[in-house]
Amino acid sequence: MTEISSRMVDTTSKRVGRIAGGLLGLLMALIIMASTSQAFAHAALIQTDPSDGAVLAQAPKQFSLTFSEPVSPLVLTLVKPDGTPVALTSFRLTNQALEIDNPQALKSGTHVLSWRVISADGHPVGGSLLFSIGAPSEPPAVSEMVDWPSRSAIWIGKVFLYIGLFLGVGGAFALAWLAGNGRAGQRFVMAAILCGLVAAPLSLGFQGLDALGAPLPHLAQPVIWRTGLGTSFGWTVLVALISLGLGLLSLAGPRVLARPLALAGLLAVGVALAASGHASAAEPQWLTRPLVFVHGIGIAFWAGALVPLGLALKRQTAGAVAFLRRFSCAILPVVAVLAAAGIVLAVIQVQTPSALAGNAYGRLLLIKLALLVFLFTLAAVNRWKLTASAEAGATEVQRRLTRSIAVEMLIVLAIFGVAAGWRFTPPPRALAIAAAQPVSVHIHALEAMADLSITPGHAGPVAASMIIMTGDFGPLDAKEVTLVLSKPDSGIEPLKRAATKPGDGSWRVDNLVIPVPGRWMVRIDILVSDFKIVKIEAPVDIGP
């Protein structure tokens, strides 16, 4: 009966291995799909002055960009109608607003304000807006092509950094705390740590390239490295290098210091991962950062022990059975904490089940969950079907357990690939925050002006708020205000809604429905007196 059970387990392991191999191919396809997504925003641009597409009578003295969260500017450029770029170096940060000085008088025609900033999660965000002075002209070309060499380098660097932290530092911890006097897998662990020591600084350079939008050949420029170090990912790299160094010292240093050094290295893995990234930047950070810390330590403990344990069983070393027994006793609470932290982080990032299939982040999460199901299933089979016999000294079962551990290792590497792919995909949480932000436009005419805000700034039920003033920024006591929205290119006739004045100085229109996204023409009819109506209008972009 035991032999039949062992054969069934062996067959299951082989099937899981074949499926995991197929999932690797699917994983690469999804990484490419995620990388080509157009929704790269982490911090969302919610208001600009001038507004995108505005036609101004004269050049503005300054430009203003307001984001959904605080940002740090990286590259600010004004492209003139003839294609000449002008670097914008004078700016001020006020909470979530970036105010940029216009350094020179601008001639008539269409200009492009191109911006690139770094968001709180350490990821760069870029975009551009068009405005015209006098009359529109043919806009200068601004390239937004994906730099595949740089993007591939970022992904590969992330994967190898994970190998260094999880397999290297985690492996060093397993050798110090679980393997006893056994040294099986030490060369592999040292090689993984060396991979991490190379990948960590390179990843910092790749971060600088991505932040500045520079091509891969510019990697040697000092500004690239300064920029990368200035992002939150710089802290991740610095702590990761400390963690890798501690792991290496635990292997090469005095045996009496191996355990404390390995433990310190494992804790530093959690600190490094909690220093930057989507999950760490999510609110509430008092919860998300500790969860990322715990999640990282759990992954390193589990993944790091696989290769040393598998090699110890394969070689049938003296301490292999004791190693297996210690790992088997410790892994259950570790996996429980790891799974709990992962579930909470996933709920915070995704928020609703419908978001799983609606964007690249969710689709990658589904692939990761599928891989985890295979991994947990295989680990359960190992724990409850093979471990007891292997601990009893059954040589054939130990060999099968070794092969099963090898399959686990393959799945773990695939999970690393998925996690690295998240670098290019904003989570549904960030997209939801961006979608909930209002869209604002400033409408200015000689007789009157208005600041209009539509919340949220996407199609569906919205509310509009307007502050009405005279053309010279003075108070305007309007008798009535009517909001008119139209979209002629979609055949939508004007939607007219009378505004109310709740008492805070603004005019409001509630229970308004904007049926489709796109560029709408908004007009505000202001009844100044019984005999005079002032009409001002401007375009406004409504998101999907």
Could you write a compact summary of the structure shown?
With 544 residues, the chain is of the alpha+beta class.
Number of strands: 17
Helix content: 40-55%
What's the number of helices? 12
Arrangement of strands in the largest sheet: 2-9-8-4-5
Output the radius of gyration: 29 Å
Largest sheet: 5 strands, mixed
Shape field? elongated
What is the succession of H and E elements?
HEEEEEEEEEHHHHHHHHHHHEEEEEEEE
Query: Averaged pLDDT, please?
Result: 82
Distance between the termini: 61 Å
Structural class: alpha+beta
Q: Which spans have pLDDT < 50 for at least 5 consecutive residues?
A: 1-17, 19-41
| Estimated share of beta-strand residues | 15-25%
What keyword list fits this structure?
single chain, alpha+beta, about 25% strand, disordered N terminus, about 550 residues, four-stranded antiparallel beta sheet, five-stranded mixed beta sheet
Could you characterize the architecture of this molecule?
The protein has 544 residues and is an alpha+beta fold. It contains twelve helices and 17 strands. The strands form four sheets. It has a five-stranded mixed sheet. The longest helix is centred in the first third of the chain and has 34 residues.
